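Quick log. Single chain, no ligands specified.
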Amino acid sequence: MPRSKPGVFWSVAAGVLLADAFTKILAVDRLAPAYLPRPVFGDGVRLTLVYNPGAAFGLHFGALSRWIFVALTLVALVVLWRLYLETPLAHRARTLALALVTGGALGNLLDRLRSARGVVDFIDIGVGAWRWPTFNVADIAVTSGAILLGWVLWNVDEAPARQASMRTAADQPSSGPAG
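-> predicted structure:
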């Protein structure tokens, strides 16, 4: 099975990685000291520099978290690469989804490898004390790519069932008046 065009995959993955790295450099440079919220759109959207040594939603495994998440990310990247290699040429949405997740995973992986402090997060959204966990560009790419990949894979699985259902309906005799 031919795989999709590598230019699309690598352009998107590299674009995500570069955008993530650039925004993290800006966040570290311009938002220090850490944990001091800076309103962008009132209290709803703020920029707050934080370092996350764990994973999404504060998932943490103690002193070994950094290396556990490095290992899990490397496994995920191998799985993503294999999915990409199995992606047919015409499946651009699947290629885009895999590229988004890959670029985001690489962005956060680089943070973990670079510093024991953890992943740089800085986008802070919420209302009052009800805040979404602070995140970054890589997290946006991983989340949107995972949603798109889920949608693509769901539709691929559903397509044969829909086609079979349509064939069955077309094969049924009409229940209209006989002529």
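The CA atoms of residues 159 and 165 lie 10 Å apart.
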